[in-house]
Design a protein that fits this description.
By secondary structure, the chain is mainly alpha-helical. The chain contains 8 helices and 2 strands, in the order βααααααααβ. The chain has one domain (6-221). Helix 4 (57-87) runs antiparallel to helix 5 (93-115) and helix 7 packs antiparallel against helix 8. The chain starts with 5 loop residues before the first strand and ends with a strand.
């Protein structure tokens, strides 16, 4: 029986992965309904970037109102990942870096979100830098978590599957870079689709971790004896 003085934390990880995923799709639908972007399948048609779905109309307020709390939640999520791994008995060097990588990634997401919808070279630089740091540092943090789990005797198979997801995410990113260098015209047509796919894969990893937190009964103690 679970300790009544503690609460499960898997729901926090679930929210950390689900809120950004739902937000970009809600703002996409709202932008389509308001006529700011075309109706399409962004994962394939590459008709709009994620940023464009939150620049105008009601979607502007939805995007900022959801993404800023999501970034704060993300900071807590990565901090707790470090505690979770140590609770499992994993104390590798990489575990120390996970909360810091998550912190910088989520602060970058905040900067990107705040700059979205504003014009000027400074805002454009903040947006580009923010999105690159968010994707790259989040990926590295996910890679470290996956590798740490793979080296644990009881979680090695799960860690291996998570690493395969990371490898697929990396392959998508590398493919985008190769296409940009070899066939830049085609890449420009599909660049937005790559962004949507990468966002999906990163959020899937967070949702997977939420299920692992639940499986391991990761909980927070509300008060001591």
């Amino acid at each position: 029986m679970a300790d009544r003085r503690s609460v499960p934390l898997w729901w926090l990880a679930l929210a950390a992965g689900l809120i950004p995923f739902l937000t970009i799709h809600i703002t996409f639908v709202v932008s389509v309904l308001e006529g700011h972007v075309s109706a399409c399948i962004p994962y394939w048609d590459s008709c709009t970037s994620i940023s464009r779905t939150g620049r105008d109309g009601m979607a502007y307020f939805i995007f900022k109102g959801a993404m800023l709390p999501a970034a704060v939640l993300g900071i807590l999520f990565w901090w707790l990942n470090g505690h979770w791994l140590r609770q499992l008995g994993i104390n590798s060097t990489g575990v120390v870096w996970i909360p810091w990588l998550g912190l910088i990634a989520c602060l970058s997401l905040m900067a990107y979100t705040l700059a979205l919808g504003h014009t000027g070279d400074g805002f454009n630089l903040v947006r580009r830098t923010g999105v690159v740091l968010y994707f790259s540092l989040t990926f590295i943090a996910e890679l470290l978590v996956s590798g740490a789990l793979r080296n644990h005797p009881s979680w090695s198979s799960t860690g291996s599957r998570l690493l395969k997801l990371c490898q697929f995410t990396l392959a998508v990113g590398i493919l985008s870079v190769i296409l940009d260098g070899v066939v830049p015209e085609f890449h420009d047509q599909k660049d937005d689709a790559f962004e949507w796919v990468l966002a999906l894969l990163i959020n899937l990893h967070a949702l997977w971790l939420a299920m692992l937190w639940r499986r391991s009964r990761f909980r927070a103690r509300l008060w001591a004896d």
